[in-house]
Automatic annotation (TrEMBL):
Domain 6-phosphogluconate dehydrogenase NADP-binding, residue spans: 10-166
Signal sequence annotation: none
InterPro entries tied to this protein: 6-PGluconate_DH-like_C_sf (IPR008927), 6PGD_dom2 (IPR013328), 6PGDH_NADP-bd (IPR006115), HIBADH-related (IPR015815), HIBADH-related_NP60_sf (IPR051265), NAD(P)-bd_dom_sf (IPR036291), RedAm-like_C (IPR048666)
Recorded family membership: Belongs to the HIBADH-related family.
Keyword field: Oxidoreductase
Protein name according to UniProt: 6-phosphogluconate dehydrogenase
All residue ranges annotated as the NADPH-dependent reductive aminase-like C-terminal domain in the record: 168-293
GO MF terms, alphabetically ordered: NADP binding; oxidoreductase activity
Any Pfam family the entry gives: RedAm-like_C
SUPFAM superfamilies attached to this UniProt entry: 6-phosphogluconate dehydrogenase C-terminal domain-like, NAD(P)-binding Rossmann-fold domains
Length: 295
């Protein structure tokens, strides 16, 4: 169990844009913050604000408190943590890994940590750097609940919403990937819509008010469809997948008539047509979920 002093001290390994934002928020909250980065020179502003910068990750870990690591991916996490000096310094301490990667990599890191007597929490940050230390930040955590509770006071100083998703260490990464799946597929659709709109003489500025309107339908769709998706009931008499496939084919037709690649929409229409081919033309579009991963 960490002492009060330990809870009000933190080490941040990795000073990319996100690591710097995390360290800055800890400093703003008055937490004693020790920092390290592989490439020197990214610590200046944080040192001016009161951080202690040290030349090696093992020294940073030994400074006490929770070790937060936030680097590009888990290959980088391994490169930093799985060295004898660092692993030794971490023994009996806890790491909160806020780097992004896959659920299996998170579980593998948890097994490695357990073998070396290191407490391990995995996490994902769902919002960009300007939100860190504000109410808008969204942090997901997974791993032993007791460990999460122990370190919650220092994690809470990052602000925003902190959610513990369960003891399975891979859960935060799994939520992260599912949420980023929504985000990047939507961004691919938006980029395509902008290209097609431009070909039709519509600027991004002109489209924005209506783009916002259509994106606001999505939260409602998520909410009303959840029980049906979980139970396998995809009935949607107001918006059958046959109608969705028809509207998708118009998008494919118009964009290709302008010489614009429509492969993303072609893929979505193809999935819808497969569902119709299975005899589920009266279902809503989310029946595609069942096609992709039959229960
Ligand atoms: P990057 O994803 O570019 O990560 C940069 C950091 O990773 C630097 O500290 C860099 O060190 C370090 N790094 C890379 N390779 C290695 C290595 N082999 N050994 C040691 N350190 C290494 O930038 P961010 O800081 O923005 O992101 C960090 C994590 O936060 C990522 O997993 C990202 O997905 C996640 N995230 C970022 C958000 C954002 O808005 N930026 C939003 C949500 C999540 P060096 O300086 O030496 O190259």
């Amino acid at each position: 169990m960490a002492s009060h002093t330990e809870q009000s001290a933190v080490t941040v390994l990795g000073l990319g844009p996100m690591g710097r934002a995390l360290a800055g928020a800890f400093l703003d909250a008055g937490v004693r913050t020790t920092i390290w980065n592989r490439t020197p020179g990214k610590d200046r502003e944080l040192v001016e604000r009161g951080a202690v910068s040290v030349p090696s990750p093992e020294e940073a870990v030994a400074a006490g408190g929770l070790t937060v690591i936030c680097v590009v991916n888990y290959d980088a996490v391994d490169a930093v943590l799985r060295r004898d000096a660092v692993t030794g310094a971490l023994k009996g301490r806890t790491v909160a890994n806020l780097s992004a990667d896959t659920p299996d990599r998170a579980r593998d890191t948890a097994s490695w940590a357990a073998e070396h007597g290191i407490g391990y929490l995995d996490g994902a940050i769902m919002t960009p750097t300007p939100t860190i230390g504000t109410l808008a930040g969204v942090f997901l955590h997974s791993g032993p609940e007791q460990l999460y509770r122990e370190h919650k006071p220092v994690l809470d100083t990052l602000g925003g919403t902190q959610t513990h998703l369960g003891e399975d260490t891979g859960r935060a990464a799994a939520y992260d990937l599912a949420l980023l799946d929504i985000f990047w597929t939507a961004m691919a659709g938006y980029a395509h819509a902008l290209a097609m709109a431009r070909a039709e003489g519509i600027t991004a500025r002109e489209l924005v008010p209506f783009a916002k309107g259509i994106s606001e339908i999505l939260p409602w769709v998520f909410e009303v469809s959840a029980e049906g998706v979980d139970s396998g009931d995809y009935t949607d008499s107001n918006n059958p997948i046959t109608s969705a496939a028809s509207s998708m084919s118009h998008i494919v037709h118009v964009s290709e008539s302008h010489g614009i690649d429509a492969s993303v929409m072609r893929a979505a229409e193809g999935l819808a047509r497969q569902v119709i081919g299975q005899g589920h033309g009266g279902s809503g579009f989310l029946r595609v979920t069942e096609l992709l991963n039959p229960r």
